[in-house]
Amino acid sequence: MPPGKGNAKGSSAPMTRPHTSPLLIAALAVLAMVGPVATDMYMPGFPQMQEDFHTSSGTIQLTITSFMIGMAVGQLFWGPLSDRVGRRRPLLVAATLLVIASAAAAVSWTIWMLILARFVQGFAGSAGVVIGRAVARDVASGKELARLFSMIGVVMGLAPILAPILGGMLDGVIGWKGVLWCIFGISVVMLACAWFVIPESLPQQERTAGGIAPLWQDVRIVFADLPFLGYTASSIFSFGVVFAFISSSSYIYQDGYGLSSMMYTLFFSMNAVGTLIVGLLNTRLVQVFPERSLLFTSLLSISAGSVVILTLSLLWDALPMGVFTVVVLLTTCTNPIVMSTTSTLGLSRHKRAAGMASAVMGTLQFAVAGAVAPLVTLSGQASPLSMSTVMVGSALLALAGALLYIRRPGAAAERG
What we know:
mainly alpha; disordered N terminus
């Protein structure tokens, strides 16, 4: 019997909370991975897609835009729904819909069919992110929750960096349609995790009532919680710093520094390695140091690094590639610490409306990521100067968010 089957509504036996077993942790990591991987894994195939569909590059870019809109809207749907009916049923429905949408994307014969399929992909895939975080909040607390979010944070930090690298290697062998079929395969894995591994983690007595009034009450509770909004701001804008680099890196390395696609992949991979090392280190750090101290230290590091890149870009007409690579690596590699600590501290404040809180945090994160991409090319072409300008702005907003919880009484307390 799949997990959670015996806990259906009407069962006389009380539900026992699941434990954070290695298998459950791995399944939650898969849920967190699907959205970021599906976002940009197929991007190396854009030139060939443009030729095959006989369309413009701007229209091809709409496949990314529609996916991001789906991810943002979907989290606001699946998160509150899981607070009302439990985590498992919405996750199963979303995972099934994701498999169907991924297959439709892979067989699309028009660009508009692909754009629509990508929107549904994002809408369904967002359930993995938002419900996965809510399940983690249900089954763990304190240091255990911090450790769990640290592990998930490693995956979420690596996925958007590794996906284009893996997609670039696969595109040369199986083409962009083959890459989309790989995303379909990942979707099937998510469905298997939802069916066989993810339990029903929200007891009946802890679910919120249906209707507009309780939903609006949850919205008011979340948005009236200034420390939670501070954690959310730190999370989304620190991710904006990283995404400013991700969205501009191919232009800077290939057009600016003249690297081949293979050499670009090599330099880009350094950030993946740095992110992995810091993410794994963070699983130990959260057991020793207070989460808020780790968070504030990481924000200061990201802000300082962003300012250094901007300063060097202003001083040098042509910033040396080695200097650029090292400083960017040192700036962005601490993001997994920010992601894990903000998730732990922010969601720990909302037990009853964990799905709503997770939805707000996730939706705003994807909204900021979608806004950052065009900002780095406002001057016409992405460069270290344009990238670092966006990075500094994002870092300062992340620090501004910190003012809402640093030294604020009760900022780490649960709100219910």
